Automatic annotation (TrEMBL):
Coiled coil: none annotated. Residues 77-218 form the XdhC Rossmann domain. This is Xanthine dehydrogenase accessory factor. Pfam families: XdhC_C. InterPro entries: MoCofactor_Util/Proc (IPR052698), XdhC_Rossmann_dom (IPR027051).
Amino acid sequence: MDAANLARLNDARRGRRAAILLTDLETGDDSVVFEGYSGPPSFEPAIDAAFRSGKSTSVEVDGHPYFLNVHLPPARIVIIGAVHISQILAQMASLVGFDVRIIDPRTAFATPERFPGIDLTGDWPVDVLKDRPLDAYTALVAVTHDPKIDDFPISEALRSGCFYVGALGSRKTQAARLERLRVDGVDEARLARISGPIGLDIGAASPAEIAVAILAEIIHTLRTREISPIGDK
């Protein structure tokens, strides 16, 4: 591997930016492709599919064999609210391979006994997210039902380009939430990205079933997301 390309991959890893090392298997030449590839159109389907799946693979483009070595940041789920749904969602998401973090200023709920082994912070999201910001490889799940706790991280997730933003509540609750965010200056395109009511519509009733619906929607969104042209080859 070219030393400059190794440096670019290391920079991407530190900055939680997705990258692919693209190697021509005939010549050995390699280059680094960032998510949002904007090079020759013939490469785009293979590059986009690799970024969505996270799997390294061999492809043939324009009659030449290439190997795509995919480097994705570890996907995170940040849960706002240490509630019953969060207890189950955190366990399932960890098993699937997500890094999970829970934030809730209500210290009676945010206890290590209720969330053993989970990254748990009993503080306000506005303070926590200053030091540990959201990014494009983070899913934000807001489940407190309290606008004073949920609204800021939802707005911040939309601003930061989180790949998934979901909020618990009825359609009436969601409508009120959207109006509050409009007043705070969030535009309609970003508001449309909020999944509310949260989760896939599977008729979930119990906290465990709601957690399943949320995790399924997060995975679906991650694996089918749009790869917009923001990078280069």
